[in-house]
Design brief:
With about 300 residues, the protein is α/β, with parallel strands linked by helices. The protein has a domain at about 5-80 and about 160-230: Rossmann fold. It is built from 8 helices and 12 strands. The strands form 2 sheets. The chain has a 10-stranded mixed β-sheet with strand order 3-2-6-7-1-8-9-10-11-12, sandwiched between helices. A two-stranded antiparallel ribbon has the order 4-5. It is elongated. About 30% of the residues are buried.
Length: about 300
């Protein structure tokens, strides 16, 4: 066969946010599933803290009807209570997508403005350039000679913001009704907030009591796009078997339940499943965030 028939894989990755080797890939769609009082918010707020420590959380938007009862979970995280704590309604997903598009526009505006500013500074420093020869509009734009500012800076340089959106206690709300665009948002989460230099995107985190059900379960379109799952204690065997099927490419059902039992040793433990693990990660399974769970020879389970 001719070489031109070979499959060529692009060099760029779908996961564009740099993180430490032992942390997860971002952007992501993350689900914590547990019954009431099962530590979903505790676990995800800790994950958000880890994102911040990885320089991967500049803005946190919280969609919740119960935020003010749970605000202590989010202390130290970059959430603006006036603008970024939102009730779950049928139009919320569209509003969030509009907010991300606005972030993209503001980033492009800054990049264009800093280019013009640098151009002006270069002209002013050019001893051979008469100020009368400089475009008057350019001079008027920066008449105070102040360098343009941007709200997301790191080491003195602007960067596209890394944004997390946390959906807490939203099951049963209008957000998950068919008229909502939440499924569309989940599908496009990496491509939202377009800029001239690639999209901003966002990481979505869901805390839910039910993985599936006829009325209050997580929409299938969201389940199908999950990159990570936190599975707490669950007595619903049908849900557990369905989740086991999602992991069928890595382990069979029997091995999955061995992993599940191994992970849940203490009251607030969970099985962490990484469907998009980094190549250097030895397993897609962890007990909580910090202990690898591995399958050796598809038979014997051991922990590193």
């Amino acid at each position: 066969m001719k070489n031109y028939l070979d499959i060529k894989v692009p060099n760029s990755s779908a996961f564009t946010i740099p993180t430490r080797d032992d942390f997860i890939q971002l952007h992501a769609v993350i689900l914590a599933c547990a019954k009431r009082g099962g530590s979903k918010t505790t676990a995800l707020s800790n994950l958000l803290r880890m994102m911040k420590e990885n320089n991967a959380l500049d803005r946190l938007i919280i969609i919740s009807p119960t935020y003010h009862n749970n605000k202590h979970y989010f202390e130290g995280l970059p959430v603006n209570e006036e603008t970024d704590v939102i009730e779950p309604e049928v139009n919320t997903a569209q509003d969030l997508m509009d907010m991300l598009e606005l972030e993209g526009e503001m980033y492009d505006e800054y990049i264009d403005k800093i280019k013009r500013y640098n151009e002006l500074m270069k002209l002013l420093k050019d001893a051979r350039k008469n100020i009368d020869e400089i475009d008057n509009d350019l001079l008027l734009e920066f008449d105070n000679m102040e360098k343009p500012t941007y709200k997301y800076m790191r080491n003195g340089k602007a960067h596209k913001p890394t944004i997390g959106i946390f959906f807490d206690d939203c099951q049963g709300s209008d957000l998950f009704k068919p008229k909502s665009k939440i499924s569309n948002m989940v599908t496009k989460h990496r491509h939202l907030g377009k800029t001239q230099h690639g999209s901003i995107g966002c990481t979505l985190l869901f805390a839910c009591q039910n993985y599936t059900s006829s009325s209050m379960g997580l929409p299938k379109s969201i389940r199908g796009n999950l990159t990570h799952m936190l599975l707490m204690k669950n007595k619903n065997m049908n849900e557990l078997k369905l989740i086991a099927q999602e992991c069928a490419g890595e382990v069979d059902e029997e091995q999955f339940f061995k992993l599940y039992d191994k992970a849940l040793q203490e009251k607030y433990d969970f099985l962490f499943i990484d469907f998009a693990k980094k190549k250097e990660h030895p397993s897609m399974f962890r007990r909580n965030f910090n202990e690898w769970l591995m399958v050796e020879n598809k038979k014997n389970l051991y922990k590193v």
